[in-house]
What does this fold into?
Amino acid sequence: MNGYTYTPIRLMGVRAQPLMFWLPPPPAAVTWIVGSTMSTSEAHIDGIFIWADSMKVVFTQRAHLTYGVVAGEVRRAVVHSGRTRGDDA
It folds into this structure.
């Protein structure tokens, strides 16, 4: 899976069949571009939601950024799963 180590999770005892999924390597990183400023924040896992009846898992990650709002300023975010900016090379 993209050359990164993912963590296998096997949830047993909720259903007759185990619920299995993979968590991405922590932490993901978000590169923020606000106007002419660029920075990177780690996005740690914030919650894991399991719907055992439908065999679905959703996890959320949260990264922190504070900036002032400027009318017409371009803002952009790029998510890098389990790596930081610069690992792409």
Q: What stands out?
A: The two ends are 17 Å apart (CA to CA). The chain has one domain: 7-80. Residues 7-80 form one domain.
